[in-house]
Amino acid sequence: MRNTTTSPVSPIYFNLAEYCLFGINLGVFIGIIVYYNILNKKSNTVNGFLFGGKNMSVISVSLALIASHLTSITLLGVPVEIYLRGTQYWASALSLIVVTFLTAVIYLPVFHKLQLSSSFEYLEIRFSSHTRTVAAVLFVMSKLMLLPIVPYVPLLAFRLVTNPLAGRITAVICVACATLSAIGGLRAIISIGIVTSFLAVAGSALPSGLALLPMGFKRMWEIASHGGRLVLYDPDPELEHHTSFFAVTIALSTNWLWKIALSQSSLQKLLAVSSIKKARICLTVSCVGVILMKLLSCFLGLAVYAWFAGCDPLLSGAIKKHEQLVPQFLNSLSVMFPGICGIFIISIFSATTGCIASLVNSIAGVLFEEFIRPWMPQSTNELTCCKIMKLLCVLVGAYCGCVVWFAKELDRLQHVASGVTGVTAGTLLGLFTLGIVFSRANCSGALSGCLLSLLLCGWLLIGAENALATGALTFQGKPLAISGCGKDNFTYLLENVNVAKGVTTHLPTKPLQSLFRISFTYCPLVGAMTVLLIGVPMSYLTGKSRIDSMNPDVFCPLTQSIINKSQMSSTESLEIGPPDTQEVYMALDEALRHLKEVIER
Questions:
Q1: pTM value?
Q2: Is 459 helix (H, G, I), strand (E, B) or coil?
Q3: Every domain of the chain and the residues it spans
Q4: Each residue of 369-380: pLDDT tens digit?
Q5: Half-sphere exposure of 407 (CA within 13 A, CB side)
Q6: Which CATH code for domain 16-550?
């Protein structure tokens, strides 16, 4: 059995069975599109288009929430992280547990009581219309930058291991299916999410399981341990180390908290069930499912490392970027197990389609609710509103398809879009948290915290991008080897893989430049903390908001209980307080008159 080779593997081409599988998958998507756009008319209202009528089942919403995390970045990027930097990414499971708990206890009760069509409508109720507009603009800008990256990541990975034109056509077909699904409303998106969940499990579990057949689990574990990839706890305090324990748990939790608890696409699914109890069940089930998928991706990364431990494909010239590592691994595996490439590519196609459909639907909903509906007459019927949202879906999908088709290189845009998404996610998370948790926060504190957060995080992002471009900032990884290239057995790899220490790149030591070493993972955390640290004091300096005139549902249950206790204590103090002076005088006067009458008698 031959494990690795120094020459590039031949391109991936589907066989007849794989074409049939892909055709069946595409046929299922087309069937969903036809059903929800032609046969089923439940999405012809705003409530049906955005929330599926708010009577959907727990299982379907749970699977859709799981699918919303299963992007091509998860299926392709996480195994590469494990291959390059070890298994510390497993700690993201802890982050998901904490984020799910915070969402269920703090954020979900607020939005489930208010039942808003747009999550940004909350900011107008809590602060002002200006705060709502600023937040909506940030959301739309970040999502429009991120949208073309979602199909571009799998396109980049498969571009050099398959026909480039075929890969580009597949990406455009993916965007077209996603756009048509978004037009069908939330029910169509959830239907695609159900299909995506099962395909993603098969696409991650099958390749890693088949890769173990030639060597066994014990041998794979020994190779990973010998290569330093088994990392259970890495307390590296350096901020540029984006896979340390603290980066994966604390910093990554901030981004996920925004995505799960507050993003428009997630709230649409959580509000699609009839009660908050069912929504919490959906959150719990989706947390378990996402953790399972993360662990499967980590396991796939270990299998890929065991396969290429002695002959790194990038160093040997087989690939040009490590992003193509998983396709290269699948291509090598398909020599022994034909068809495995097709299953994985189909799962990538499905995950990408579902993610784009959810993004297009949420962007169209926010654009309509925030920038179009306020200018429409109050008498506009639901059918007209729904048609406008469907037209917005078409325009957003066409924009995404054009960028994917005509853009020759989106690598730099990929880094910038990820950074901008992190900056806006942290700022928006801080803004919503300020309103939901802090009862005394006001509009001045919210806007000042938002502005300073954007300035600080934008400054850090620009500096970090410049440091990456000049080579001053590099992300260190575990050692890689090519000493096993051409060898035919895993025993040689286990005994001879050289685990020498890698060369450390020393970064500039100037104080200003050292700030730019902060990993992009920490950007959401910095943004959220800045909003809170500036917004709370500024609210007290400019005059605390009057909570007695506010709807109590805009606060989380914990804050509501604190407000009720303070109001009860103030009422009790009024009841036992000193009597009014005028009442005392009147009583004394009455007593004197009574005494005078007695004396006269």
A1: 0.83
A2: helix
A3: 16-550, 558-600
A4: 889 988 888 878
A5: 21
A6: 1.20.1730.10
